[in-house]
Amino acid sequence: MDEIIYWNHHETTLFAVEELRRLMRNAGYESTIADHATYSESIENSDRKIHLITTNEYHATCKNDKMVTINDDGFALFRSGNDLWIIGNEARSILYGVYMYCKNRFGYEWTQLDEESIVKKELLTQEQLYIHEPMFARRGNIIETINDPNYVNALIDWGVKNGQNEYFFTFFLWDYIKSYVSSALRKRNVHVTLGGHSLSYLLKEIQENTSDNELKQNEKLKFFAENRKLQDKVIQKIVDICMENEVITRVSLWPEDIGIDEKNASGFLPTYIRFTEKLKEALQKNKSQVVVEYIVYNAGLSWNMLEREDQTEASDHVDVLYAYWGRDYSTAIDSNEPKQKRAYETLQDWNKQAIKKGRSLTVLEYYSDHFMLSELFPPLLTRIQQDLHDYKEMNIQGVLNLIVPTHQKRKHPEIEKNYPWKWIHHLNNYIYARIAWGEEYKVIVEEYFTVLNEDKEAFQQMFVELEALISQHTKWNAPLFPARLVDPEKVEDRITYPQIPSYLREVYNRLAEWDFTETESFLAIQTKDNFTSFTTKEMMLIYFYYLKEVAGIHAEAWTLEVEQ
Q1: Is 77 left (phi over 0), alpha (psi -120 to 50) or beta?
Q2: Which regions of 19-80 does DSSP assign to beta strands (E)?
Q3: DSSP letter string, 68-125
């Protein structure tokens, strides 16, 4: 019988003990629990002692000569005689170590959401010292509008098991779900960022509680340059929100999701950055350690909200979040496509500025954004792999993945009613999470597809082929903006895009080669949220089926519009 010994009473350490005991029991192994402060060395009835300890505690109190150096929120597994030490730079890192230990010893895998499995495989013998460090300091999901506490809690649970450490909510979403998700966030000791496109929400909250006519102004982008009294009200509102819940660790309030014209462009970024510095100053005055950042983002495809002018410098006090919307995901971040080249040079510039100022830069990516990527949703396995390694080479400190549900148009209810967007985007989120955590791409993909047994190679090849084919449609996001490839009814000059119908027919014809007879037989019981009722293979076929249908419907729509 193993004995679990915990060295501190941090809530997350105790949760790690709880998880280790639960996972061992489910694998058929019982354990006892002991507090190191009251633990007796004379106890010899355990097969193994498992110590859960922070790096500082390990170095300060343990007799072992083996010292360990761990970066960021990584962990170490260290074997010494009959003892195993799970050593984390912080309590959450201990929890990461518990999950890795259970994966290596018992064969646990956490691939699909709401799924925990023990895979029967030959496990490798652990070396005496194993150290795992993340690829990025910030790793997690941005959740702007998904008012679904059960789903969000599932994302948090699954995400931490796969190395994530941050969850980002808009202020209005946080207001709706904080009572449901705070406990899950707190006991895992993850970072929580609030912000996003929440300015209208904050202004409304203020305006509903004031009679001052001056505060009735709601000019979204001018807010950051004018009406300092209103700014002070918003800042105080944010400070109050941060002070009421200790799980909040960062604020990232963005300009509204609209572009700024050339007339108002000059001076926008400096005044916006100064606003975030004022917010940081206000938090510090309240003895808050909450971090603040500003976003550089081409809202409405406005380059002057993304690019840095000569008079604009990065802040000495707040961090940078970089978001380039409209990217062609069939190409790398350093491709020679003119817009992508321009965006890449802008990213290099901001990162150089941030490093110069001693601040960090994080990239916002859209790998799980069903608005940008649409229902013609591409798997992005190799793109994510290359992106993250390219960002690492640039010394980028973090990458966050945005999750956005489908944009309901009610144009094709037979598709939109049951389209399983939570399952479909999850492959990209899975690849992203594990690579950002620092795991090898080949291992990640092998573990995802291994459940398909003899069909593994065929499906894996199909996903690679579909990535190359379907990711091409994202090159039309910028030219068609604010419409997308799946919005032919919104495009006025459709005649200038004769290649789109032929492209969609190519996608349809490729997918029509698959036999969907069996898949169509159980579509009658398939809904958008019951994907746990189906096997991974069945869900893959459902995904392919929807891709085929979406391509066919819109190929016909584009053809009709072009012919007219």
Answers
A1: beta
A2: 31-35, 48-54, 75-80
A3: ----TT-EEEEEETTEEEEEESSHHHHHHHHHHHHHHHH-EE--STT--EE----PPP
Token pair for 21? 């005991």
Contact 315, 276 (CB under 8 A): yes
What does the pLDDT look like over 246-299, one tens digit per residue? 999 999 999 988 877 666 666 889 999 999 999 999 999 999 999 999 999 999
Structure tokens at 125: 């013998």
50, exposed or middle or buried, with CB in 10 Å at 0-12, 13-18, 19+? buried
Q: Give the model confidence (pLDDT) of 77-88 as tens digits.
A: 999 888 999 999
For residue 76, the tally of other CB atoms under 10 A from its CB is: 22
**DSSP per-residue string spanning 339-357:** HHHHHHHHHHHHHHHHHHT
- The pLDDT, as a whole number, for residue 259 is 75
Q: Which residues contact 445 (CB under 8 A, 6 or more apart)?
A: 381, 431, 460
Rounded to whole angstroms, the Cα distance separating 95 from 104 reads 14
Cis peptide before 482 (omega within 30 of 0): yes
Q: Where are the domains of the chain?
A: 2-132, 138-451, 455-563
Question: What's the per-residue H, E or C state across 247-287?
Answer: CEEEEEECCCCCCCCHHHHCCHHHHHHHHHHHHHHHHHHCC
Which tokens hold the place of 139? 């790793």
Residue 263: its pLDDT value, please?
63
Topology given in CATH for the domain delimited by 2-132: Chitobiase; domain 2 (3.30.379)
The pair of structure tokens assigned to 204 is: 């409304």
Topology of domain 138-451, CATH: TIM Barrel (3.20.20)
